[in-house]
Amino acid sequence: MSTGGDRTRATDASRPGVGGAPRGVEAVAVEAGGGGYQVLVGPGLVPEGAAELLAERAPAHRYAVISDDRVGPLHA
Question: What digits encode the pLDDT tens for the residues 7-31?
Fold first, then answer.
């Protein structure tokens, strides 16, 4: 069954992971409405690499982290 996203392993030999994020991060390509975006999934993204990763990929003054009742409390 397809989830509609193209999962690719995000790697860069010069860094521990994507944009300083830990190895094992997956980039899921999501196509929506006339465009698309990537969702990065992996252990340690929020505490270890989110700020640098976001600054590199999507410079902005505000970001949102989306979670659920189960995962959110584990990283709060």
Answer: 544 444 334 444 545 577 888 889 9
Give me the percent of the chain exceeding a pLDDT of 90.
Answer: 1
Q: What is the 3-state secondary structure (H, E, C) of 2-62?
A: CCCCEEEECCCCCCCCHHHCCCCCEEEEEEECCEEEEEEECCCHHHHCHHHHHHHHCCCCC
Separation between Cα atoms, residue 33 and residue 46, nearest integer Å: 27
Say what the pTM is.
0.48
Cβ neighbour number for residue 47 with a 10 Å cutoff = 9
* Residues 29, 8 contacting (CB under 8 angstroms): yes
